[in-house]
Amino acid sequence: MTEKKKTTIVLFSGDYDKAMAAYIIANGAAAYDHEVTIFHTFWGLNALRKDEDIAVKKGFMERMFGKMMPRGADKMGLSKMNFAGMGPKLIKDIMKKHNAMPLPQLIEMAQEQDVKLVACTMTMDLLGLKQEELLGNIEYAGVAAYLADAEDGNVNLFI
Amino acid sequence: MTEKKKTTIVLFSGDYDKAMAAYIIANGAAAYDHEVTIFHTFWGLNALRKDEDIAVKKGFMERMFGKMMPRGADKMGLSKMNFAGMGPKLIKDIMKKHNAMPLPQLIEMAQEQDVKLVACTMTMDLLGLKQEELLGNIEYAGVAAYLADAEDGNVNLFI
Amino acid sequence: MTEKKKTTIVLFSGDYDKAMAAYIIANGAAAYDHEVTIFHTFWGLNALRKDEDIAVKKGFMERMFGKMMPRGADKMGLSKMNFAGMGPKLIKDIMKKHNAMPLPQLIEMAQEQDVKLVACTMTMDLLGLKQEELLGNIEYAGVAAYLADAEDGNVNLFI
C-alpha cells in the first residue's frame, strides 16, 4: 500500500481571486486523491466567515476589525482590478456565463471532498474572530499543526 | 542515472516585480539542471500576452478585460511603489544601469532553456484571452496537469 | 542518525503582516528542529534594514528608493487595511494586548534560534541597499544559494 500524497495550502490572502486559486488547486488535489489541508490565517480567515452578523462579545478594536473585514467568501474583493468593488461582480458574472463555480461553492465542494479546513487560532485572536462567526465543520489549530502536515507535504503553497 | 530535480511555479500575480522573481528563480533552476514549469494563471497570464493588438472575436466583458489588462510583460506594473505607472520605468532604468535583464528577456531566456511555460486554460477562458493573443511555443493545460508536475516537485512555489 | 528537515522561505513581500507570517512559520519550524532559511529579496529586504539612517554613498535613484522604502521591520505597512499608515499601529496595539510578539522581536528570536537570514545580493544592488544598512549577523547570497537549500527542502514557501 502506498501512502497518500499530501497538499497543504496556507491561505493568507483575503482576495476573492487568490482564494479561488487556492480552492481550485485544493479541490483538484483532492480529486487526485491527495490528503489536502487549507490553513486559513490572517485575511484568509474571512473566507470562512458566515455571511450573517453573529452576536458575540468583543472589545472595541475587534468589533471595528469585524465590521470592516468582508463577512464571508462572497464579499471578498479582488487582488487586481477591484474597481472599488465592481470587479468581483464582473468576475462573478463572467464566471456564471462560463459555468465556473463561485467561491462559496468551491468551499462547499472542498468540504464534501474532505479537504481539511483549518482556522489559525492565533490570528483569529488578533483579528477578534470567534468560532461562532466561522463556518461549521472546520478545525482550529496553530502553526505547529500546520508544520506537522507540511513537513510531509508533496505540494506546499503559500497563497 | 539519477532523476532530474523538478521546480514548479504557479505565477498568479500580474506584477512586473513578482514575475521577475518567478522568472529569475525559474532560469536559475533550469541552469541547475532542474526540469522547470511555470504555470500562468489569472493575472500571471498577462506576462505571456503579445504586445501588439490581436484581432479576435470577443464578448463585451472579455473585450473590456482585454483592454484593461497589460498587454505583455513589458507593460506590467509593480506590486509596490508603482507611483501611478512611474515605478516600472524607474526599476527598468535602474536595471539597465546594473545590466540586469528586463522581464521580456528573462522570458526569452526561459524559453531557450526549455522551461515549460503553461497557460491555464480555465482562467484564459474567464479573462477572455485567446491563444492567438499569447506568445508562441507555450503549452495549454489545466490544474490537473499542474498537480501532476507539482506532486513530484522538489521546489513548488506560488507567486 | 536522521537528517534534519528543512524549511525555506523566500520573503519577497515588504508588508508587515506577510513578514510576520513568514517569521512565525520560520520560528515554528526552528522550534520543530528544522533547518530554516529566509531568503529576503525585493521589498522583503526592508525587514532587514536598520532603523537608523546610515551614511553611505549612493546614486540619485538609489537614494530616492532608500528614502521611500520603510527603514526596518517596525516601519512596514500592511497588505490589507493599511488605512494610510494607521493599520500597522492598530495591529500592533492589538498584538500588545494579546501578548503577541511584534515583528522586530520575531526577527531577533529567529536569529537566536539560528534561522539563516539571507539578503539577496542581486536585489540589494537594484534597490541600492548596502550591507552597512542591514542588520548584522546575516548572510549575503544569490538565487543559486537559495536553490541549493530549497531543492532539499521539505517546506518551501514564497511569501
Automatic annotation (TrEMBL), chains A, B, C:
This is Peroxiredoxin family protein. Pfam families: DrsE_2 (PF13686). It comes from the Bacteria. It comes from Niallia taxi. Transmembrane segments: none annotated. InterPro entries: DsrE2-like, DsrEFH-like. Signal peptide: none annotated.
